[in-house]
């Protein structure tokens, strides 16, 4: 009786291909300040807008340029999004002043105080109509308590609507628990989809800067 040996093939070729997909600074890198990374992490952007933003960073800071001519097809190649959607997201970022535009050239706006990011939509505590809370249309230079972002004018408006109530009452209404909120802190809240998108955005930031601190989504 003879002994036979069976040779098993563990697909070395496929394993070698996976090893080549490891990121290395020798292949190029983008210099990005920690302040910008934290601002991007805390910005209320959609998943599509964030992907286009990262692509623009790649085409500018990735080549050590503040601005460059970037076509929608180049953005589509990086983001794996349709060209039309890339164009829409790019123009939205320009309107929010997160991206600067000079003719056909685009680049990141490092002046964070110039950013104007619309807040999450909610319902007015009085009319229950769908409206923007607008607790700060533009990106605040210093993030503070939610109460600090409500202006005196808005407090006067609330008081004039119902003179029998104190000016502090609307803030309590704003912080009421939202039935479809997955996360909430005071008047700021978001759905489960918003939380998933925010966590995905932070994971993308971590690929650029592993030392970036995770923001408090709650």
From TrEMBL:
**Record field: compositional bias (Basic and acidic residues):** 123-132, 144-159
| UniProt name for this protein | Replication protein O
Q: Mind listing the GO biological process terms from this record? A: DNA replication
Q: Which NCBIfam families match?
A: phage_O_Nterm
Segments for region (Disordered): 117-190
Q: Which InterPro entries match?
A: Phage_lambda_VrpO_N, WH-like_DNA-bd_sf
Q: Which residues form the Bacteriophage lambda Replication protein O N-terminal domain?
A: 22-115
